[in-house]
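Okay, any thoughts on this one?
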Amino acid sequence: MTDAARSDTLIAKVKRRGGRGDRSPLGAWFFDVDRVLLGLTFFLIAIGLIAVAAASPATAIRYSGDHHHLTPLYYFWRQVMWVSVSVPVLLGVSMLPVATARRLALLGALVFAVALAATPLIGAAHNGARRWIGVGLAEFQPSEFLKPFFIVALAWLLSLRSRDEELPILPLTVGMIGGVAALLMMQPDFGQTVIFCLVWFALLAIAGAPMRLLGGIVAAVPVGLGAAYLFYGTARARIDAFLFPSVDGEGAGDHFQVNAAHATLVAGGWTGTGPGGGHAKFGLPEAHTDYIFSVIGEEFGLIACAAIAIVFLAVVVRVFVKLLDEQDEFKLLASAGLAIQFGAQALVSMAVNTGLAPSKGMTLPFISYGGSSMIALSIGMGLLLAFTRRNPFLTRSPYVVRWGQG
């Protein structure tokens, strides 16, 4: 077969299977989106519903009082409601063109940065922290929504440096992360501060920041931790409870949570007690949110926990493998940042549950209960899917590439 005939055959195949010229928007999205990444996301959401159903009875008993009684599956049905809202959001955001998704993220970063600044003034307090705005079902956590938008805004700023090296991009990003960190510490929310700073550092490294700057940041970490221990009571309590568990006083409650989480995690052994068979979970605070990984360990076993950890790892690896040949600097930085945030949040949550890190109040992505967390994660994953969309047929052959560009 001649080159011309081969080219005509491949072009006809593309048109039949989803060429750009004759596809509907939905068909274009279906062939362009990373269906493996989308499938892994839906798998985590499904696992989350099962896990919340397992944790719901323990949480319902803990929060039932004299004036109200919660049904055993109260939190499960509420999570079903949040999932029914979040999945359309995820799919809708993933269908946006890159330019539209970027503009949405920049606007969202501005809106939720203002909301974060207003939280210490008008926010609602729960468990000693003022992180929410609103009342009842209308409450939301600005920091959860700010995370994906902040990452995309940061990626956009860093991508501008390749166009004009005279722009003061690095000082601007330092001011951004410093402002966000200060607002988070006021709530206080040490865990979210760590995630924001980690993603900021990772994006600086990926963007090619000078090694002297990166080395200086790394060297400043122990100094920052020391200052936090001396002058920031929340950090001191967390560190004392983690390093000195036998010392009574401030932080003892945090150590109790870590001990309870570890005991629940290993109570079911390798294969678990079976759905609804767990007993240790009833002594676990926040079983449906911060410590849901421990509930999974008790009822479904350590093997199930390992499998979930592998799924989180697969999501991150999938994104980075796909970015190996990405030429657009903005999409590279935005996708890498969103994947790092997703993986880091999962890692911190699992580390707290296993006793490898101090208690931080970090939800497990797509698995823990929560409306703000579920919707914000869906926005973040939708943005990630939008930035990694590619037509698999137009990049499979040089003949098709030339045709697509012609």
User: Anything to note?
Assistant: Strands lie at 124-126, 129-132.
